[in-house]
Amino acid sequence: AAAEKGGYDTFMEKEIHEQPHAVGDTLLGRTDEAGHLVLDELRISEEQLKAVDRITIVACGTAAYAGMVAKYAIEHWTRIPVEVALAHEFRYCDPIVSERTLVVSISQSGETMDTLMAVKHARDLGALTVSVCNTHGSTIPRESDAVLYTHAGPEIAVASTKAFLAQITACYVLGLYLAQLRGGSYADDAHAVLKELQEVPDKIEKLLGDLDRVREIARFMADTRSVLFLGRHVGYPVAMEGALKLKELAYIHAEGFAAGELKHGPIALIEPGQPVFIVVPGPDTPHGLHGKVVSNIQEIRARGARTLVIAQEGDTAVEPFADEILRVPATSPMLAPLLTVVPLQVFALELSTAKGLDVDQPRNLAKSVTVE
Ligand code: G6P
After folding, report:
1. 61 Cα: distance to centroid of ligand 1 (angstroms)
2. Per its record, what are the GO molecular function terms (predicted)?
3. pLDDT, tens digit, for every residue of 68-104?
């Protein structure tokens, strides 16, 4: 079993370290010599894809958070409206779907019953269905019009890590491909983003070598009873995912919030010593979002929160208000989730280990939920 884990103590740790490959392999072979995306494997005609006027993403759990990240990116790059629905809600909410709707399901296993039923329902309503999936020959891709495989390799640990990064990457690829099909400045912008995306695996590799501090923090926090996570824009689903990892692995009450929502309720939870992770957008994020999140850190720190700040290298504005700063390599705002989630994965892993829990097989959870 030790050999299967490649020298790591747990599958989760191994899979976290495989993330540069999960992203790199999901990009591999999907561009031509000129650096344009080629997705013949999709098997949906360019005409049909160009006619798409609405996208609905269906997924559960971590895959749904990948979908939330994808919404920001695909809408920005294509100007096609994107909605994200939990698969088990989608079917029962009388969804608005036409033959020009692209329903994108995201599933690591390809066997999640809730997601499968959502796909079947979408197809019955006449939608075009694409499966973003990590498992060849599984049920959801077979029941879909097309598939875009993530190439994360088998994921054994129940809590998803490398599949999440691969799902986000595949959704970026899909969004950039749709932008490329739109042509003009959409295509030019997509080309530039794709180039930057190709640099992300090296950045993840560098980040993975730089996580000693977050491990230490986690070990000191083994008795903590509640942790909050704040994020904004694409950092919002990252905050949700950070909270989910902690619930799944360490059985600690954890909640992710949109940072802008803080003043509308959650700030009441802040009392002296309350640990709060804040996923800070890069300083060049549009609309001054960086400054707004820095103000949030200031506000909760003034009320006694222990601020654990995830910020880009070189972001000095966070320094006065951070109890701890966890640095991630700089990247453009839309791609940041591929980096900012990594310290949160490692935090949950390490805290679970410190509590003596089974990291790979948390209680009450299944890797793939094949019942409704
Ligand atoms: C289960 C797992 C989660 C996973 C979710 C969706 O609940 O415990 O880690 O995110 O299913 O799984 P899928 O295979 O559809 O991505």
Report:
1. 5
2. carbohydrate derivative binding; glutamine-fructose-6-phosphate transaminase (isomerizing) activity
3. 999 999 999 999 999 999 999 999 999 999 999 999 9
Write out the two tokens for 192: 């530039």
Classify residue 144 by its DSSP letter.
S
Q: ipTM of this model?
A: 0.94
So what's the pLDDT on residue 371? 86
- pLDDT value at position 28? 96
Q: Where are the alpha helices (DSSP H) in 125-253?
A: 139-142, 162-182, 184-197, 200-208, 212-220, 235-250
Active-site annotation holder among 5, 120, 247, 367: 367
Contact 243, 227 (CB under 8 A): yes
> Is residue 367 annotated as a catalytic residue, yes or no?
yes
Residue nearest to atom 11 of ligand 1 (CA): 368
232 Cα: distance to centroid of ligand 1 (angstroms):
24
Given a contact cutoff of 8 angstroms between Cβ atoms, the answer to whether 30 and 38 are in contact is: yes
Q: How many other CB atoms are found less than 10 A from the CB of residue 208?
A: 16
pLDDT-derived band at 126 (thresholds 50, 70, 90) equals: very high
Q: How far is the CA of 308 from the centre of ligand 1 (A)?
A: 27
| Mean pLDDT computed over 279-289 | 95
**Two tokens at 135?**
């498992």
Closest to 77 in 3D by CA, of 150, 170, 174: 174
Given phi > 0 = left and psi -120 to 50 = alpha, else beta, which region is 114?
alpha
